[in-house]
């Protein structure tokens, strides 16, 4: 544990420190993994909980030429914060802010005819050519156009392009199982993607970018890189799956460190029940530490009795249930001062647990751990400037 990484006392109840130098280094590492493709930093869901605007800026500085969001509102928020350059969003519902997105020069994705019609109508209304990307469902079974419906969507897009209302800027898709190399769906999706791209191009579509790779495909499947890779979790320094490798195996470093100041340290006798339901009972006289974050802050209740925390150089485990605002650890007789730092997770090289450790403790994935950290936890962005550490 180093002083700079985890100061001995944190002035805040809790904080999520976001290391933007690590984020920039991750983007550079990812560009090296996909040297022939452009890179999109996926910053949806407030950059997986890390702060969208700050992360988007840092990713841009490190060479991400595209930013990606799920909702148009997220994309518009990036523009409102002054972020220029290519921005794409893909999760549309009928009546969405097409006109605003088109006027803000955002690439919009359509998976079917209703969305194409709305995009075209909005482009006509505002008098600006829309940048439209056609999404193919090559096997994920979520968003995207089914192969049987692709000819109609391609024809509709070409007709709108001929009328000067849209430009088809991209053809794209998304993997279902790229985090399981060798899964037969991966090659099947790649084959179908090539076929659907070839069909659209034969019909006259001239896409600027063809793309299907998420983080796991970017890291493990070069043939999936095409013109652009869309990396989310790896930008934040987390491995897409522990089975694939550690962040360090891929030259990545976790960006978020979540810590809290101990709110109380007290002696209790043996046999003392701890937290709701008394699922933990002290085995002997001991000290308890109160960590003032709970499930309202994104600490998973499923990690009751299992989640790890570093306090005073030792790993402790959540004792009993995680409550809405707090949980308790058994300090085994140690007496750190109130205000001492409890590190829930970080990069791991200071001895602290990682988001992956919490994912294992809660029976989920590290994506969910970082993304669900609540709005009550301030994000403290550090190394904001390039020259402060790269
Ligand atoms: C369409 C799309 N592309 C790319 C990504 C990024 O995925 P990952 O975080 O695995 O890189 C996501 C996130 O789920 C997504 O929904």
TrEMBL record:
EC number(s) per entry: 5.1.1.1
Function text: Catalyzes the interconversion of L-alanine and D-alanine. May also act on other amino acids.
Keywords noted in UniProt: Isomerase, Pyridoxal phosphate
One of the protein's GO biological processes: D-alanine biosynthetic process
Cofactor section: pyridoxal 5'-phosphate
Entry protein name: Alanine racemase
Pathway the protein takes part in: Amino-acid biosynthesis; D-alanine biosynthesis; D-alanine from L-alanine: step 1/1
Chemical reaction(s) catalysed: L-alanine = D-alanine
Residue numbers carrying N6-(pyridoxal phosphate)lysine: 44
Keyword check for Isomerase: yes
GO molecular function terms listed in the Swiss-Prot or TrEMBL record: alanine racemase activity; pyridoxal phosphate binding
InterPro entries according to UniProt: Ala_racemase, Ala_racemase/Decarboxylase_C, Ala_racemase_C, Ala_racemase_N, Ala_racemase_pyridoxalP-BS, PLP-binding_barrel
Domain annotation Alanine racemase C-terminal: ranges: 255-382
Top EC class for this record: isomerase
Positions of the catalytic residues: 44 (proton acceptor), 276 (proton acceptor)
Record family assignment: Belongs to the alanine racemase family.
């Amino acid at each position: 544990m180093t002083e700079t990484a985890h100061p001995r006392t944190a002035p805040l109840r809790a904080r999520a420190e976001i290391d933007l130098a690590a984020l920039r280094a991750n983007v550079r590492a990812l560009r090296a993994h996909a040297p022939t493709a452009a890179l999109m930093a996926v910053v949806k869901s407030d950059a997986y909980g890390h702060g969208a605007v700050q992360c988007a800026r840092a990713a841009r500085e490190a060479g991400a030429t595209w930013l990606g969001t799920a909702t148009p509102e997220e994309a518009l928020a990036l523009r409102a914060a002054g972020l220029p350059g290519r921005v794409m969003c893909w999760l549309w519902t009928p009546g969405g802010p097409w006109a605003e997105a088109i006027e803000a020069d955002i690439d919009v994705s359509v998976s079917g005819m209703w969305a194409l019609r709305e995009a075209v109508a909005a482009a006509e209304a505002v008098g600006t050519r829309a940048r439209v990307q056609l999404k193919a469902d090559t096997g994920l079974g979520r968003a995207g156009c089914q192969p049987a419906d692709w000819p109609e969507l391609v024809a509709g897009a070409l007709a709108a392009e001929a009328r000067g209302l849209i430009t088809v800027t991209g053809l794209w898709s998304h993997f279902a199982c790229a985090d399981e190399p060798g899964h037969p769906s991966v090659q099947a999706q790649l084959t179908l993607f090539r076929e659907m791209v070839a069909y659209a191009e034969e019909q006259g579509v001239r896409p600027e970018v063809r793309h299907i790779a998420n983080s796991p495909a970017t890291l493990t499947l070069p043939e999936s890189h095409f013109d652009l890779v869309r990396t989310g979790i790896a930008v934040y320094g987390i491995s897409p799956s522990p089975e694939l490798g550690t962040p360090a195996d891929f030259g990545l470093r976790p960006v978020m460190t979540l810590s809290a100041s101990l709110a109380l340290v007290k002696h209790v006798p043996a046999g003392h029940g701890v937290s709701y339901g008394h699922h933990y009972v002290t085995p002997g006289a001991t000290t308890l530490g109160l960590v003032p974050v709970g499930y309202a802050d994104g600490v998973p209740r499923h990690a009751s009795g299992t989640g790890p925390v570093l306090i005073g150089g030792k790993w402790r485990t959540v004792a009993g249930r995680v409550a809405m605002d707090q949980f308790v650890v058994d300090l085994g007789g140690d007496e750190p001062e109130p205000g001492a730092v409890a590190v829930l997770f970080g990069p791991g090289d200071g001895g602290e647990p990682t988001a992956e450790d919490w994912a294992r403790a809660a029976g989920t994935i590290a994506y969910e751990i970082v993304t669900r950290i609540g709005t009550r936890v301030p994000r403290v962005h550090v190394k904001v400037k390039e020259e402060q550490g790269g």
